[in-house]
Structure formats: C-alpha cells, structure tokens
Specification:
With 440 residues, the protein is an alpha/beta fold. It has 3 domains: 55 residues, no CATH class; 286 residues, Alpha-Beta Barrel (TIM Barrel), CATH 3.20.20; 29 residues, no CATH class. The chain is built from 14 helices and 12 strands. The strands form 3 sheets. Strands 11-10-9-8-7-6-5-12 form an 8-stranded parallel beta sheet. A two-stranded antiparallel sheet has the order 1-2. α9 crosses α10. The longest helix is centred in the last third of the chain and has 17 residues. It starts with 22 loop residues before the first strand and ends with a helix.
Length: 440
C-alpha cells in the first residue's frame, strides 16, 4: 500500500516516467490515499484504466484498479533492467531481450504459444521491468508475432523501444520462387511487409535469419545498407552463421564502405557452446554484440527433464512424442548425452546455494559471459517472465562460473586444439576464453 511520505517511482507501460509533487488520489470517492511523486504522464495498457493526471488546484477522480497499480509500482521500484551498447554502435538495449517467437498461432502444432491478450500482458510486464529490447521475425507464427508486437507497439512511445526482426525464410506458399533467401528483391519485400505488421516506419535492428549460399554477399549487404540510408532500418545484424561466414561479412562491408553489422544472434547456452570456437572470436575482434537465443535450450535447462525421465509436457514432451519434430533448440530426449544431465545437476547444486532455480543459474551464467550483450528470453506466462527477469540482482562467483564452464565445455577439435596450444605463450588477446585457459 502507499503510505504518507513514501516516494513512488512508477514507470508506466507506455514507458513514461511518473513524477511530481504530492497528490491526493480519490478512488471513486471511497478510499483516499496519500502518495508522493505520482503523476502519470501517459495512459497505459497494463489492464488498468489510469487517466492522465495534470497538476491542478482541483483533483479529479481517476479510475484505478489499485491492486494492479501497486503491482506496477512494485515492479518499478525493484526494476532489474540494466543496459549495454550493442557492439561498437551507440545503440543501448536492456541486457534482457524479450523474444516473441511464442506469440500468436502455433508453429507446426507445437504447444506453448500465447494469444494476443496474454502476449500484450507479457509485453506490458516486460516494459514495467524497464526492458526496452524486443526480438521477433517475419516467420514467427507466419507473421502473427510481428502483428501482435505491432498492435502493442503502436500504443507506446515508439522511440522508447528497440525492435529487432529478421528475414530470409519463405513466407509465401503460392509458388513465388523469389519469396525466400537474401536477394535484393526478397529483402526489400520482407522489410515492407514487416513494417506493416509491426505498425511502424522503421526497425532498429534488421537481421538476416541465416546465411544464404545462393545470393552474392555483396547484393545482400548493399541492400541492407540501402535500407539504412533510406531510414527503414537503423542497423543491420546477422544470425546463425559460421565463423568464416561472419568474418567474410565483416570484410565485405568494410571493403565496400557499407554500414557495418552490429550484432550476431546465435544459439548459446550451457548445452550449446560451439560458437565460442570461432563466431564469438570474430565478434570480440570486430566489435559485434552477441545476442544469445534459446538460453534454456528449449526448456531443457529448467530441470523439467532428468535422467531416465522422458518429458511428457511442454515442447520437449511434444518432441518426445515424435522425434522427427526436434529442432536445433528443441532436441529429442533419446539424443541427449549424459553430459547434459551433469550440467543440469551442477546448475541445481549451485542454485540451491543462492536460492535460485536451474533456469536462473543458466541465465545468470550467460549474462556474466563477457561476449554477451543481451540474452533473448521467452515467456508463456507472467510468472515465467517474472522468474526469468529476476537474474540481475545477484551474481555467480568466479568459482561457480568455472564449475559451469568445466562441466559444459564442448570438445575442442583439430585444428583449434593445436592452434590454441601453439599460441598459449604468445600475446594473450583472448585471456578470458575458456578454451584457451583450459589448454594452458
């Protein structure tokens, strides 16, 4: 409850800072509350009807659902949002990004999708935490994810949020052979359609969803550069590439004098660390921000799946019913090595010391990796979002980070093992890399 003299700092879901002198709020003439610094400067979409309050000599009545208002104030007061620059750019984002692949209709019939109402509630709660970074893609829900984000975004101060989306995949089932890939034609068509669905006139980060072997890289990068110059996108980014592909992208845009990519969105978690071998080395050397997706490996790193316990619920349970459904982020239970369960056990042991869940330990480990700019989380409920957001107010000591590094370390194949060994006594430009330290 609000008490006399308590300073309330409230961020509305529209992203506006509340502030001002002491005001008396009359809740439909029944309850009078004293609150300081409570002047709401914009309407919200949190599910409460909070009207614009202006400093006047006479106080109007404001229709407020008090429990919801208190919850918003609580979230704001304990906001855990922290912010990082993306790569070498001047763009600043919350270190937790809300992924929206679960918004809208189910893809391929898999469970765990959110309808528009719940999706908007999740967006509201994320914004109330101070989160400003949203990630989507044209292919998520066949465009429905972008539409849901768009109907929410049009009611917010657009410049308060950083919106990233992607293109490459086929969005046309009518036989259009050019409706896939990273050609100039497909990219320009994709951005126009994404802008319509998102109900905005620009996208902050426009990412290629994967490398396209069929299209000349120069064509792709020149098209992205043109989109920056005409104001439809602010920055280009890439996703799901190998080390040599990423370095070729960097060298090509440098050679052509084009606007550089600022981010790499790559699967990265305690089970999937292979990108540390090359792609992340390129990111460190070239100043590219890393945006890990699937930080919990499709729910595997939540502790819901254990040794000799085949999943029956959620997406992993859905995959277990028909292992042909497995994806890079949602593996089949029968394919999991025992090492995965060693990782889960270690995370659980560490979590108990801090009063944290396995998922929170896995997310915290990612946040503390020096290559990470912002971790892309998903949520199918408000409770799940609250759990995922509660990772900024604590940290893992170095000893526990090392334990997680060691139990989750992937094998180092040739030629990486030989190269690292031969360079262990040379100038140490990668002192924080686990692979280098482990081979010393």
């Amino acid at each position: 409850m609000f008490e006399r003299g308590w300073s309330v700092s409230l961020i509305t879901t529209a992203g506006c800072q509340a502030g001002g002198k002491q005001k008396r709020l009359n809740h439909w003439g029944k309850t009078t509350l004293e609150a300081t610094q409570l002047v709401i400067t914009d309407e919200t979409n949190y599910g409460v009807a909070v009207y614009v309050l202006y400093p006047t000599t006479k106080y109007k009545r404001y229709r407020i659902i008090l429990s919801k208002l208190f919850k918003m104030a609580e979230i704001s007061e304990n906001s855990t949002a922290k912010y990082n620059f993306v790569g070498k750019s001047g763009l600043k984002v919350s270190n937790i990004c809300l992924g929206t692949s679960t918004f809208g209709e189910s893809q391929m019939g898999r469970p765990g999708q959110s309808d528009e109402t719940l999706s908007h509630q999740i967006l509201d709660r994320f914004a109330a935490y101070g989160g400003n970074f949203l990630d989507t893609a044209d292919v998520y829900g066949r465009g429905n994810s972008e539409k849901i984000v768009g109907t929410w975004l049009e009611r917010q101060p657009r410049d308060n949020f950083v919106v990233a989306t992607k293109c490459r995949d086929n969005m046309d089932h009518e036989g259009n052979k050019n409706a896939v890939g990273l050609s100039r034609r497909h990219i320009t068509s994709s951005i126009e359609n994404s802008l319509k669905r998102l109900r905005t006139d620009y996208v902050d980060i426009y990412q290629t969803h994967a490398f396209d072997n069929a299209t000349p890289l120069e064509e792709t990068l020149r098209t992205l550069d043109d989109l920056v110059r005409c104001g439809k996108i602010r920055y280009p980014g890439v996703s799901n590439v190998t080390g040599w592909q990423l370095e070729k992208i960097v060298q090509t845009h440098t050679r052509l004098g084009l606007n550089p990519i600022i981010s790499l969105q790559q699967q990265y978690n305690l089970v999937c660390r292979e990108s540390e071998l090359e792609p992340f080395q390129v990111c460190k050397n070239e100043g590219i921000g890393v945006l890990p997706w699937s930080p919990l490996k499709g729910g595997l790193l939540t502790g819901k799946v254990r040794r000799d316990m085949k999943p029956t619920k959620g997406r992993l349970g859905w995959v277990a019913q028909d292992e042909k459904r497995q994806t890079a982020a949602e593996p089949a239970y029968s394919s999991l090595p025992s090492k995965v369960f060693d990782i889960i056990d270690t995370a659980e042991t560490i979590g108990k010391k801090h009063g944290r869940s396995i998922a929170q330990v896995a997310l915290r480990w990612l946040l503390q990796k020096d290559v990470t700019t912002s971790v892309i989380i998903g949520a199918t409920s408000l409770a799940q979002l609250d759990q995922n957001m509660a990772i900024n107010d604590w940290s893992l000591p170095a000893e526990e980070m090392n334990q997680l590094d060691e139990v989750s370390a992937p094998g180092v194949p040739y030629p990486y093992d030989m190269v690292f060994k031969l360079n262990k006594d040379r100038v140490n430009t990668r002192a924080n890399d686990y692979f280098v330290k482990s081979l010393h």
